[in-house]
């Protein structure tokens, strides 16, 4: 008999839902979430959140209620192993296709699935269609160039193929996440280390190529960073991508001795490409003022990994998102030690308290 965790999303957003679903599968406990995305102007499930819920249900043979756009209460009960083992969820692997619709975020769907690597029985490939580079979610280059390389360092066997870019509002993007059974190492990300290099990934849709948008974005970003970087090696990758609608994105990756961070901006109608690049650089320059080894978005997303295997993680600050995620972990009996330390905060989970599936 599994427990049912009663969760309140009234002060949280979509990250709370995604993490809660992952923790439900990893612990094998049913959950009931009320006030889903309660702190958003339009609460409840949107198309991309519904896609996450339905995909997780399919992967784990779960029973679900509230699986509809606008639902503010969701119940999710992951399936059990055929032998009835109380501590072994069903995540069999295989190949799946998911259509999120229009410009719903592909990267956030992938984010929800990554933690399942520790309980997979065989390799998993999920091809999703929707938005690859859209507001309120990490651009696909952030995932492939910043997040996944770090996860591989921690023991994840994971890769991502980008088949076509999808920008707002039409979407039309397509990408595949490849995930294999993995044993995760405890996180030890407390020191940043010296800056070793910068990479700039600047992408334009084909319709924008005649305006050199990708090049101008990269120029704007790297010129704004010049004074900070001094003699640091900079590498740029400018891409013209087939897409169903015009759009652009820029991602800056900062590689340090032990840390990695990414900063992003999306093109908007009426905003010069140079200013788009500068927006990403401005965020990077603010990051240089602190001492955390990861950016604030990656810090939030790594909390589920911290729950899996334990360890220590320094984040730029305990934002509302980080606080909500820590509270969520503790509701699954994973205590998180939080210590503010100057310009950053140290989060720690004793490996003995980590979820089954971590090393």
TrEMBL record:
Reaction it catalyzes: a 3'-end 3'-phospho-ribonucleotide-RNA + ATP = a 3'-end 2',3'-cyclophospho-ribonucleotide-RNA + AMP + diphosphate
EC number: 6.5.1.4
A Pfam family: RTC_insert
An example Gene Ontology biological process: RNA processing
InterPro entries, sorted: RNA3'-term_phos_cycl_insert (IPR013791), RNA3'_phos_cyclase_dom (IPR023797), RNA3'_phos_cyclase_dom_sf (IPR037136), RNA3'_term_phos_cyc (IPR000228), RNA3'_term_phos_cyc_type_1 (IPR017770), RNA3'P_cycl/enolpyr_Trfase_a/b (IPR013792), RPTC_insert (IPR036553)
Keyword Transferase annotated: no
Active site positions: 321
Residue positions binding ATP: 111, 297-301
Domain RNA 3'-terminal phosphate cyclase insert: 190-285
Subcellular location: Cytoplasm
Keywords associated with the record: ATP-binding, Cytoplasm, Ligase, Nucleotide-binding
Homology family: Belongs to the RNA 3'-terminal cyclase family. Type 1 subfamily.
PANTHER family: RNA 3' TERMINAL PHOSPHATE CYCLASE, RNA 3'-TERMINAL PHOSPHATE CYCLASE
NCBIfam families cross-referenced by the UniProt entry: PRK04204.1-2, RNA_3prim_cycl
Designated name of the protein: RNA 3'-terminal phosphate cyclase
Name of the gene: rtcA
């Amino acid at each position: 008999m599994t427990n049912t965790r009663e969760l309140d999303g009234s002060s949280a957003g979509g990250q709370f839902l995604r993490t809660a679903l992952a923790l439900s599968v990893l612990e094998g406990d049913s959950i009931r979430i009320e006030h889903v995305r309660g702190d958003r102007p339009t609460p409840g499930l949107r198309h991309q959140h519904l896609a996450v819920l339905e995909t997780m249900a399919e992967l784990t043979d779960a029973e679900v209620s509230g699986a509809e756009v606008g639902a503010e209460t969701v119940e999710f009960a992951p399936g059990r192993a055929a032998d009835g083992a109380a501590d072994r969820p069903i995540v069999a692997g295989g190949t799946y296709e998911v259509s999120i619709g229009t410009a719903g975020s592909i990267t956030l769907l992938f984010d929800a699935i990554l933690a399942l690597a520790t309980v997979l029985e065989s390799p998993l490939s999920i091809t999703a269609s929707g938005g690859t580079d859209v507001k309120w979610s990490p651009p696909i280059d952030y995932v492939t160039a910043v997040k996944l390389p770090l996860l591989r360092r921690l023991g994840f066997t994971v890769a991502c193929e980008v088949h076509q870019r999808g920008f707002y509002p039409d979407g039309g993007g397509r990408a595949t996440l490849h995930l294999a059974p993995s044993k995760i190492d405890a996180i030890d990300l407390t020191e940043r280390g010296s800056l070793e290099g910068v990479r700039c990934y600047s992408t334009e849709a084909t319709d924008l190529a005649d305006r050199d948008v990708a090049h101008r974005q990269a120029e704007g970003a790297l010129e704004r960073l010049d004074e900070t970087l001094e003699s640091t090696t900079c590498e740029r990758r400018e891409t013209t991508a087939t897409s169903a609608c015009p759009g652009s994105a820029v991602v800056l990756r900062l590689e340090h001795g032990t840390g990695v961070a990414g900063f992003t901006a999306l093109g908007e109608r009426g905003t010069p490409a140079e200013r788009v690049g500068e927006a990403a650089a401005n965020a990077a320059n603010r990051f240089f003022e602190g001492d955390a080894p990861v950016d604030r978005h990656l810090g939030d997303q790594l909390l589920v990994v911290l729950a899996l295997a334990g360890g220590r993680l320094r984040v730029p600050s305990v934002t509302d998102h980080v606080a909500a995620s820590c509270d969520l972990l503790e509701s699954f009996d994973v205590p998180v030690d939080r210590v503010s330390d100057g310009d950053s905060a140290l989060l720690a989970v004793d490996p003995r308290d980590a979820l089954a599936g971590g090393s």
